[in-house]
Amino acid sequence: MTLLGTLRKVARSLLVVLLVTFMVVALLSLAPGSVATVILGPAATPESVAALNEELGLNDSVFVQYWDWLTNALHGDLGTSLLTDLPVTETIWERLPVTLELALLAQVIALGIAVPLAIAAAARPGSVVDRFTSAISSASLSIPAFVAAPILVYFLALQLDLFPVSGWNDLSEGIGPNLESALLPAFAIALAEIAAFQRLLRTDLVSTLREDYIAAARAKGMSPTFVMLRHALRPSSFSLITLLAISTGRLLGGTVIVETLFSLPGLGSLVVNSITSRDVVVVQGVVAFIAVVYVALNTAVDVGYGLLDPRVRKEARA
Amino acid sequence: MTQIDYLDQTGGVLAESGPHEPVVPVVRRRRSLSVGLAYSWLALVVVLAALVPLLPVSDFDIAAGPPRTTPGFGDGLDLLLGTDNFGRSVLSRILYGGRVSLVVGLVAGTVAFVIGTFLGLLAGYFGRWVDAVITYVTDALLAFPPLILLLSISAVTKPSLFTLTVGLTILVIPSFVRLSRANTIAWRSREFVRAARNMGATSPRIIRREILPNVLPTVASYLPLVIASLIVAEGSLSFLGLGIPAPTPSWGGMIADGKDSLDDAAYLVLVPAVVVFLTVFALNQIGDSLRARFDRTAGD
């Protein structure tokens, strides 16, 4: 990929970032009354509400508010919570590791299960193994998190007593207790990822295995396992890597249900709690943070793709 | 849902044209059992949810029996799926909750389908700044993880059927825009479109008469998948307590209510969980089969 192409992609996503943050600020400034009521309580007089609105700049136009928000955000200041008076950035850094750990652990579990399943299915397309795994994965794609999580809790935590029902042990309390509290929620998140990864890798593997160089390798007498792992797996894994990066970004905002159910102190439960307590500033900051990280990650994947796959590089040049 | 089977039609014409057997044998589409079951389940849920006020079940907000009666036959229709912590009939709540999920999914999906297809046609056909504006807004909306977008909308609105439907519509418009835009671009430079333009057809006419009929089946075949994802999104919101306010039942809300009594009354979670799963699974199966038939870009 040319330098110009890369720059164009980056510029494009910067524009998207501006648009996204503007949407967040504009959307949440639609309810100006609620901010003052949160701070002053329900018994506030109309005069004090008006005074506070003036002080917080909520009477300015959306564009002025956005400009103020943006300049502050670029200085690393996403405002302070209306309820706890803590800076939003501080709260985000506190909560981020939990969500990040959940997302990464879920991806590791998903890969660990999906890759062997995909290889087994692609080795003999149309076989019993193939049809069975594809039936399972299309079924598990239809299980939403709010269905999967309580059912896993029921069977694995309550019936078999393998995991705690809820709660979080920080990594500082040791890796054992930490994993014990993180595994079940991570597995609940991984369920849908397993199916998506398995489907994608299987399709790619099947089409790679039809290539001439695979036939050549087989004709040379290499074992099917060797051909599968050394010749087929690597060129088939590009779309999987892309999906992996994109879905990791999505999981930063996609662990809401699981975090709430297991009462884990992550970003998702922060958003939900701030919404129920009408702490608009925190919602604004966290949502903008998640969206910007997501866009940045997608752009990185888009740009980095050319580095991974020589075929894309050649096509771009031609 | 009735569909015209093009292959069968051709077969019919060929068979009538002469006394000989058709040269090309009629391709019989294998009717998949799981897709048949999916249509049946969906029909069952839709009919029961639509007719629930006429059925001999009690209302969703009154006690129909002793609290926490376990599911079982023999105690009448109300107690078939048991009762919840307040003695309300789970069957009745499932059916009334289904009304919310289905109406929200269907209305939001259809409205988004219409708006999204229209915007996509404009972007794909006119290109230039029209395309740039529509694509940037679409990209920006897609930059939010879906649930986060819904949550931020619900942060500034009072939860009601209307705001929920509007939020969900906004959520899925971008997917339809992308689909319709990509398909429009594929058809835009075809010969028959150019011919129409050379014959003096105006842009609105070309879009309406030449491009839309070709784009519509592909985009519409995604509708069941989108409705499935909308039902999931609605369920997630109600699970978090940010959906339709109580006492109106919803599937997500029932699971959230039941999760505290998983220990001793697991059916309170399992019953709505199975219903959600079967409905979403049925819609996905139907969507996959329609997509295999009408979407020429679908590879698998």
From TrEMBL, chain A:
A single cellular component GO annotation: plasma membrane
Similarity-based family: Belongs to the binding-protein-dependent transport system permease family.
Compartment(s): Cell membrane
The entry's keywords: Cell membrane, Membrane, Transmembrane, Transmembrane helix, Transport
PROSITE patterns: ABC_TM1
Superkingdom in the source lineage: Bacteria
Record-level Gene Ontology MF annotations: dipeptide transmembrane transporter activity
Organism from which the protein derives: Trujillonella endophytica
Listed name of the protein: Peptide/nickel transport system permease protein
Topology versus the membrane: Multi-pass membrane protein
InterPro entries cross-referenced by the UniProt entry: BPD_transp_1_N (IPR045621), MetI-like (IPR000515), MetI-like_sf (IPR035906)
Parts of the chain that traverse the membrane: 102-123, 135-157, 182-201, 238-262, 282-308
Domain ABC transmembrane type-1: 96-305
TrEMBL record, chain B:
TM regions (residue ranges): 37-57, 100-126, 133-155, 161-180, 215-245, 265-283
GO CC annotations, alphabetized: plasma membrane
InterPro entries with a match to the protein in the record: BP-dependent_transpt_permease, MetI-like, MetI-like_sf
GO biological process, one term: transmembrane transport
The keyword RNA-binding is assigned to this record: no
Keywords, sorted A to Z: Cell membrane, Membrane, Transmembrane, Transmembrane helix, Transport
Domain ABC transmembrane type-1: 98-287
Pfam family, one: BPD_transp_1
Main location: membrane
Bilayer topology annotation: Multi-pass membrane protein
Compartments reported by the entry: Cell membrane
Record-stated family: Belongs to the binding-protein-dependent transport system permease family.
Protein's name according to its UniProt entry: Peptide/nickel transport system permease protein
Lineage: Bacteria, Bacillati, Actinomycetota, Actinomycetes, Geodermatophilales
